[in-house]
């Protein structure tokens, strides 16, 4: 690791993982944090009161530890540039990113917080537009912003606007999802085309000298996925949204967490032609591009078909498809079989591909 | 309001209040958010499960709405400059700010999240020092960091490092604190000297051409205040930490929320001589300078003496003192009687005094 922070350390790949392990996890040893899921679970007392000598006690007075609720917590800062892009803006992204992280834990969303850092001189009209978009997306997702904070920094000390959203959700005791729960034989499903958000942001930056129709896929996935999680408890093992680092990096994380290998079929992975085109032009791989409205589902083989049928009924799941399988050999490995019949390894992303994509 | 965001809008005073009302509250109409307390309360089910048709149901199946827990949620972004200052740094500040906001709601802290935005080129060693300080302060306060996020932005798109912390706490059903609960006849107490943090940051910026020994008061107040809240339920009405905007601005907020007036005795308000000196030099008022380890307590008159005695026993409360009273005439007014016997009004701060103080 270098002496100074590089953009790669924010890219969501190997460099980010190293930074987090070396700088953060070595000092903040909370077991849930170290699991590396999209959200952490904390347990809180149910209908109890607190007593400074005994800790949490039941209304009757005896110390108890059983009547707990599981609360999912997740936090994300959004620094995307440009802040407005085809298909969305930083306000919509800030809600969707956090709604999706909670949804990936199977949580019922109780509330979100928003923390704005705004650069001096930022247009008030643009700010209003961003907050409106954020509010509209919260309504679309059916979630509430319960607390907020606004800071202004001097000109040159930020790039327009950054938003942190933190989300709190309630997890049904019957639901257990996590990157560590994939099993050999499971199917790997994606809910739609890969790389739309990353490619749309690249286009929106206008540095490519090309124009296109491509829109970001940024969308809240709770209404798509929550009914499925409830319908198939235990059979849906892992839900993840492949944001920074894309499909390949997220699958590498899951393969490591679950000590399994994951094998994909390249021809089955849906990618829009425009995204393919941009990737070909720039030498990028769509499997490493960020998505903001797609999920990876790892599930028992027996429910795969039912799941696909239900996904296809929702506008955010029309292109859902099975893209591969989980196996036991070579734990940690992710590979893809190409159309020619060869097999190539998909390593964890280095994180250098695209800074400030979310 | 101007067309472009000004630094004043981040100062925590009148301009911030206007921005928040016009841009945020008009679009995000969550009742708890609109109360304007340091943290919001959300209600969550206790030992229940969720049913998509009925909502939350008890384990027996019937829909219930009674067995709830109250969860306090607060969020803050820290953009202080310089990030290291006498008495602390941005890591310690990020923990204390959020611990204190939850403590002001009487909450038992369940967990904090941290979201880092780091400028490309920031020293890894400095980052390690900040995370260590944050971790040490979390241990001091007895709280856990349960989720985190790290983003890196390109050089020039931030000023070193910004940290968002969001906190989640559990509120005992017997505890009700809020800025709207002050009553005529109540006493106003501060737990120590006013303005230390603001003055220490000013000194640390090195722009004054003077040097001094002054340290920020940044400290977690949960161990000082939690036992008192439990000891005097109902009699402690309002707890607030006077951060951005200082004592005067915070008291103005409380006077508005509770529709009361607040009358202080200038000679009773503790201010360190060094802080007085810096204020005299710069034409500042210590009552508008930020504090990061002090609380305002508004309580029933009958418990004032007991409260002071207990506060004085804790290292963070040795200089606690009664500084004034709540009255019913002129709701919203905050005034201070000077040593000469005159009375001057303390209006809400404009927010222009000190940008990026926290």
Q: Can you lay out the helices and strands and say which pair or pack?
A:
Two copies of one chain form a homodimer.
Chain A: H1 14-25, H2 31-34, E1 40-45, E2 49-51, E3 55-57, E4 68-78, E5 84-85, E6 88-89, H3 90-104, E7 107-119, H4 124-141, E8 145-153, E9 161-171, E10 187-190, H5 196-204, H6 222-231, E11 236-240, H7 246-258, E12 261-265, H8 273-282, E13 296-299, H9 304-312, E14 321-327, E15 334-337, E16 343-345
Helix pairs in contact in A: 3-4, 5-8
Short descriptors:
60s Ribosomal Protein L30, Chain: A, 2 domains, five-stranded mixed β-sheet, alpha+beta, homodimer, 28% helix, 358 residues, globular, Phosphoribosyl-aminoimidazole Synthetase, Chain A, domain 2
Account of the 3D structure:
Two copies of one chain form a homodimer. The first copy, chain A, has 358 residues and is of the alpha+beta class. The first copy, chain A, has two domains: 112 residues, PurM-like, N-terminal domain (60s Ribosomal Protein L30, Chain: A); 167 residues, Alpha-Beta Complex (Phosphoribosyl-aminoimidazole Synthetase, Chain A, domain 2), CATH 3.90.650.10. Chain A is 28% helix and 26% strand. In chain A, the strands form four sheets. In chain A, strands 11-13-10-14-12-15-16 form a seven-stranded mixed beta sheet. Chain A is globular. Chains A and B meet through helix 1, strand 1, strand 4, strand 7 and helix 4 of A and helix 1, strand 1, strand 4, strand 7 and helix 4 of B.
Poorly predicted runs of chain A: 47-52, 55-66
Per CATH, the class of the largest domain in chain A reads Alpha Beta
**What is the fourth-level CATH superfamily of the largest domain in chain A?**
PurM-like C-terminal domain
Helical run tally of chain A: 9
For the largest beta-sheet of chain A, the strand count, sense and barrel status come to: 7 strands, mixed
CATH topology of the largest domain in chain A: Phosphoribosyl-aminoimidazole Synthetase, Chain A, domain 2
Rg calculated over all Cα atoms of chain A: 21 Å
Helix/strand-derived category of chain A reads: alpha+beta
Arithmetic mean of pLDDT of chain A:
90
Number of strands of chain A: 16
Give me the oligomer status.
homodimer
Strand content of chain A: 25-35%
User: What is the global morphology of chain A?
Assistant: globular
* Widest sheet, order of strands of chain A: 11-13-10-14-12-15-16
Using the 3D structure, state the CATH architecture of the largest domain in chain A.
Alpha-Beta Complex
Total number of distinct structural domains of chain A: 2
Helix/strand order of chain A, N-terminal first = HHEEEEEEHEHEEEHHEHEHEHEEE
Q: Greatest interface and its residue counts?
A: A-B, 95 and 95 residues
**First and last CA, distance of chain A:** 24 Å
């Amino acid at each position: 690791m270098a002496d100074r922070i590089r953009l790669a350390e924010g890219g969501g790949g190997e460099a980010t993982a190293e930074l987090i392990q070396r700088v953060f996890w070595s000092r903040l040893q909370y077991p849930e944090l170290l699991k590396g899921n999209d959200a952490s679970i904390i347990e809180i007392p149910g209908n109890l009161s607190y007593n400074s000598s005994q800790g949490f006690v039941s209304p009757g007075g005896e110390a108890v530890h059983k009547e707990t609720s599981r609360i999912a917590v997740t936090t994300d800062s959004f620094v995307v540039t440009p802040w407005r892009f085809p298909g969305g803006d930083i306000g919509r992204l800030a809600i969707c990113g956090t709604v999706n992280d909670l949804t990936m834990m199977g949580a019922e969303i109780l509330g979100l917080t928003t923390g704005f850092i705004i650069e001096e001189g930022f247009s008030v009209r643009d700010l209003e537009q961003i907050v409106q978009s954020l509010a509209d997306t919260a309504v679309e997702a059916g979630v509430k912003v319960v607390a907020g904070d606004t800071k202004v920094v001097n000109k040159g000390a930020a790039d327009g606007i950054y938003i942190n959203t933190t989300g709190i959700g309630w997890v049904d005791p019957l639901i257990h999802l996590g990157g560590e729960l994939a099993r050999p034989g499971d199917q790997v499903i994606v809910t739609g085309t890969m790389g739309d958000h990353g490619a749309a942001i690249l286009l929106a930056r206008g540095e490519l000298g090309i124009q296109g129709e491509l829109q970001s896929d940024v969308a809240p996935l709770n209404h798509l996925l929550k009914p499925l999680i409830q319908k198939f408890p235990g059979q849906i093992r892992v839900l993840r949204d492949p944001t920074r680092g894309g499909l390949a990096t997220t699958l590498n994380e899951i393969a490591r967490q679950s000590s399994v290998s994951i094998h994909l079929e390249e021809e089955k992975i849906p990618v829009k032609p425009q995204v393919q085109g941009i990737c070909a032009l720039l030498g990028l791989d769509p499997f490493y591009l960020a998505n903001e409205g797609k999920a990876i589902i790892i599930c028992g083989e027996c429910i795969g078909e039912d799941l696909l049928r239900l996904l296809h009924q929702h506008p955010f799941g029309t292109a859902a498809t099975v893209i591969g399988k989980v196996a036991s050999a070579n734990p940690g490995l992710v590979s893809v079989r190409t159309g020619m019949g060869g097999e190539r390894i998909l390593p964890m992303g280095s994180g250098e591909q695209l800074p400030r994509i979310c």
